[in-house]
Amino acid sequence: MVERNTQDSSVETDGGAVRQAARSHRETNYLDREVNLLKPSTPFMREHLRVVWTGFVLWALIVFGPVTLTYVAPGVMTTQMPVLGFPLHYFLVAIGAPTGALLLSFWYARKRDALDAKYGIDHSVAETDDGDATVAADGGTDE
Amino acid sequence: MISGVVLQSGLLPEGLNVSFKFAPAVLVAAMLALFLGIGYAFRVADTEEMWVAGRSIGNVENGMAIGANWMSAASYLGMAALIALSGFYGLAFVVGWSTGYFILLIFLAAQMRRFGKYTAPDFVGDRFNSDTARAIAAVTTFLIGFVYAIGQARGMGLVGLYIFGDIGLPGLSGYQSMVVLMMAITVGYLTLSGMLGATKNMAVQYVILIVAFLAGLYAVGFSQGYSTVLPQIEYGTMIAELSSEFSEPFVNESYYLWIATAFSLVVGTCGLPHVLVRFYTVENERTARWSTVWGLFFICLLYLSAPAFAAFGTDIYANNIGPVYGDPGMTSAAGDVIVVLAAQLAEFPQWFVGFVAAGGIAAAIATTAGLFIAGSSAISHDIYANIINEDASQRQQVLVGRLSIVALGVITTLAALDPAAPIAALVSYAFSLAGAVLFPMFFLGLWWENTNRQGALAGMTTGLVIWLIPMINEVLPTYIGNGEPYSATLAATVPAIGSALVAVPIVFAVTIGVSLATDEPDLATKRMVRQCHSPEPMSRMQSAEDVAATDGGEPVSED
Hints:
The complex is a heterodimer of chains A (143) and B (559). Chain A has helices at residues 15-27, 43-72, 74-77, 88-118, 123-128, 132-138.
């Protein structure tokens, strides 16, 4: 279900590819391109979804893997761990899953920032050009 | 099924020292005065600020607000209770309530920020161009706030007993009087402040609740010789000494129920309106992403500690009061205050136990605030201003908002006087509802532009019906019957606590099927969805609709 298009993943560090990514970003009108989780229609979306799906698969393994293994092989999974003293299944579920999800989140946010940089997208620009002093006054009465 | 957990017992936690205590009372009063002061200092009169805090909140502050908003009495009190009472099954709550944030982050957070409206029903109504869809979403939001807040009221009532004792309102038991008092305070402060005050408060509330929880954990662990510097890991060595019920897998509940619960809590996390609205309050989509990471970090601080607290509490309870498991065992009311009970039984000074208890109250108030804001904005913004009275003035909207907060407060208080289940179970019903009805709409609405109005209406109706089946089968009998589900088979397949596992795939299939069978949405809607995914930065006050309606700063092609 994941579209594995690897056309430029091998040259990420290359300056030429970065320039090309930024150019393809400038030339893309995102409002004309279909949004479909299974069929990315722009280079940016393709790369982004590759990160998203990788993260999702890892997440599913971290979250439902240990408990399922415990169901399948209770004997092995409930052995006591050396030093820490936890039964293995308890440790993997109580500590492994939340910590794993946190690390994955950090990884994803970093990846996404790197992707923005590669495509020449700068979020700090847009923040400064709005007149927030006037906005609060009318408070969205046009709703 | 979860009968051991759902057992009712007059709601007086055994072992808890119920009496008025001066120092803890002053502490709680000071804390509440601080919340009211902050709420007053940041009081608001217009809707933009009331609902989305002027979209001014930054990374760490929003992360803390996500944490405080998220960590309710269910996290502070209920989670340790479930881990202590139902062992390995309780960990499904730790996992579901934390790891769900990753799904929220990769699939929804930034896109929701780019959509940029006010409320969850706003999203549903505008994305699917339907006032009916908006109304269903608004009613669902209101219902979630109501069901979820019952658990919070129960938590505040139980913990309040330690601090204020039995205040004895005429005709009510000590627990019931406390519920009434605490809810009155919550509603009072909320009607004054609104979302801006609430957000500022939430950062403060997060600090109070995490400090109180960790201080309690470290103090109990250290004084009883359980742990030194890292109780979150050190409790591992004592698990072998606790009863086997504490850690043995699937003795209390089946593998299926474990997965169903964890899954429901994950999708519920992604569908909860009061969580979603936190992404509307931030500056831009990058802040939406990073504040989610921060939020999960702040949440993990408590979630990694709760099992340790449960282990300590179980051991202390067994040493001081009696066996935790078996008959009679620890009641659900005692379980729900095990965090406070552990501190009390470890013989700390009253002010310190009161501080731990106050953390629980801060957690409950912060979440109730978020829920009531989401519920009341659904009524005032989505139903009143968008459907009933389209010319509503700001003043009218804010008034209706405040009235609906009061209404929510009253019905929640009534339902919490005789609650059907422990805190965490009550709260999980709301998660099943959010997961079944709203999550598929958010997910498909954002990731498949061909999802249309008919599909959304069919899907949401299906979700509501599937959620209602186990509520009638299992939860209704605890109020009007003998407490046993009408059909045991149905309760095992579609458990109230995890009905989203069954509901979500069906709702997805119905929504997709009906969308395919009917006309595609118009180009304006599709462009709005595409704008949610465009990497092109947006300015702070823009919504995807605004951009999609213009040329989006890019040349419009003629097709």
